[in-house]
Amino acid sequence: MKTPLATLKFISLSFLLPGLAGLIVSAMISTYYLDTLPQQPSAHESRVFARNIHGTLIYQTQEEDTRLTLIEDTSVGVFLVGLSLGLVYLEKWGSVRARDAAPDDEFSEDYS
Question: Is 18 in contact with 78 (CB distance < 8 Å)?
Fold first, then answer.
């Protein structure tokens, strides 16, 4: 049977890692867009939605904008949930360690 701390650690990692992977994918898509999409609006291609990527303004379609925004926002949300659970895990882990390290008798002193 797993301990509650091990379960919390597993759940935290199961949110952190996909969130981080999504952030990496969104960075790859942004870099691809920066290299391939026009820097001037193109009405005949429906590339009229501006996005600033690394200080360069590119123009994309509504679908491209929606897809990239969704990937970025979802990845950040999933990552933050994992980060929050990880912080809860670390707090609980630290309190268990402190409890285990404390002497059983509050009046005993260790002179070694």
Answer: yes
